[in-house]
């Protein structure tokens, strides 16, 4: 059985005040709600539904309607000293809504908070439609899919980083061995240098001449080392410049390969897309209006006992109008003229055909809108790619210029060093006699060994830097842990929609079992939703929520039945449980502290009382519109507002 979900402490359960002006049938009124259940009692046409629709608007829904003849109406909901407003204004372009409602989760409020007669879930059960799209409507599947794409990209980049780190760490043993070898070679040269310095000290040559010769050789050695370092820098910078030039050519080729698109093309696409969306919204409004007309007229013609608007039920002409003979004349409720009942039925069939045509037109518009969205996404991706390549080309050109300037500076420096070395070599050549002595030879050996030691020291430092850089890289365990976290999040996002679907189905099935027991529908053994995946052959598989019914007769025999055979009250109960399941599965109580109930007349009073008690366990503020006789069976602890309060 489903575990009762109490509203969280984050949801506002404080005292509420609602002020309404010129909405629905209400001129102006202010009512207050305490936490728990509030019953709006009164006969029909006493503005109970108008109040619920206004409250829907303050919460963030789309239900409030402007009072006939008024140019502006508004509603204000006050909770914990915070005010949430909604204004409805009549303009030349139509009705506009503005303000700061309690939440911007419009779909959530309309689908699972506002359970009026036209609630989509209740109507879907009544018509036998698939419930999947209704229950999953608040889920932003496009955002989830984008998050999955982002996680995949992040995971690929992290895997590449992990592979790079592993490759570099694999070189550590070789680098450490090379560092050890270099240190041994440097130590060996240091021993030789110490020996030569001892030999120099033992010479009895002229101290001043020996000092000059040593300084000359040291100077020559220093210039040669500096020249070597400069030539190494030149080679490195040339290599960097050549690599950047290759990179620049590749970037330019990639940029030329990206198709160009004009601003006019994108503007035209956006204009067409907006136009198609306007057409689709207009069609949906038309379809909804036509359906309302057809359903209303079907209700008038379907059963005996319906009171035709404006006709006295005791009138003999009306009694004749309700006869089953389709040729019998009836009074048209719209114009007052007498027409054949069959003529009205024919006109309803014509309207149904118009609805089907409009639905086909809407499907075609939807397909065109999706195609244009794909085109827009392609243009945006091309634009981003062009801008990225342009920035890369600009950065690469700047780097090439920097390398060229660096090369010029290094070449100038190398030329100066070669000139200085040439001059020093000439001076050394002039000290021929000194050079022929063992002292000069020893100095030359010292110079060569010092140069060699400098080269080895530089290489050892480079190896040390590379080892330090590798050791500073993230550890493979840390990278694997990050990959595991990404994989877990990716799997969670992949299954998020399926989990929500499963949660909604479980909530419905558990609550349906409980409510069937609470309301005492003895001839219904079970009503449940089965989650199925239909493979349409084209495109991805679609998930559907199949509503199933098993009845039990007086002998205890159970048998399958179809939802269409449910009574009106049974269908209303099923529709309400669907909305409760969606309310809990989407955790709507975290977003909105209200649930609004209306149009429960098809359910008997005792079951209404049990149903309200059941729903009250899950909602901080439950506002229910009831007839006076239906309200009598509910707990006296529930707050009551009479119709008089709505006309004050």
TrEMBL record:
Does the record's keyword annotation contain Coiled coil? yes
Kindly list any coiled-coil regions of this protein: 348-510
Residues covered by region (Disordered)? 157-179, 248-267
Under Gene3D superfamilies, the record lists: P-loop containing nucleotide triphosphate hydrolases
Name the InterPro entries on file. Answer: P-loop_NTPase
For this UniProt record, give its keywords in alphabetical order, as a comma-separated list. Answer: Coiled coil
Name assigned to this protein: Archaea-specific SMC-related protein
